[in-house]
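[Meeting: bench + compute handoff]

Bench side (C.D.) handed over the final construct sequence. Compute side (W.E.) agreed to return the predicted structure before the next meeting so the bench team could plan truncations. Sequence as handed over:
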Amino acid sequence: MPATIAMAPQDELLRLTGVTGNPFEDVSTTNNGVGRYYGANKGFRARLVVAWAVTGTNPTLDVKFQDSADGVTYADMGYSFTQVTASNAVATLSLSAFPLLAVMTAAGRPWVRVVKTIGGTASPTFGSVAVLHEPAEPF
C-alpha cells in the first residue's frame, strides 16, 4: 500500500476524496464523498487518480459530480469521468496520464461532491483512488 501523503492545511482544499492528511482512499463500495464549498459560477479542473491495484472480477468504477444549494441535498451535475476498469486503471508515474475533467458550479449551487459507484463481482476494489482538483476560479 502506498505511504500516506503529508498535506498542509491549505492542501485540504485540493481534494474531493480521502481523509485529512491523505487524499487517497480504497474504493470497494458505492459511496458519496464529502461536499466542498466552491462558490457559485466557479470552474475547476478535476483529475481522477487510481494509484494502486484493482481487484475483483470485471471491476468497474464510475465517478460523477453532484452539486447542492445547501450542502445537504445533492443532485447530479452532468459531469463524470469515463468508467474505470482494470485495464484502464494502470498507475503510472505521470499525473498527466490520468483523466482530467473541467467542472463548473451553477448559480445558487456552490457545494460539490463526488459519488463513487463500484461494479463487478468477487469483491471489486480500486486501491488508492483520489479526485484532485485545481482551485476554483470565477467565470
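W.E. noted at the follow-up: The chain is about 0% helix and 50% strand. C.D. will use this when planning the next construct.
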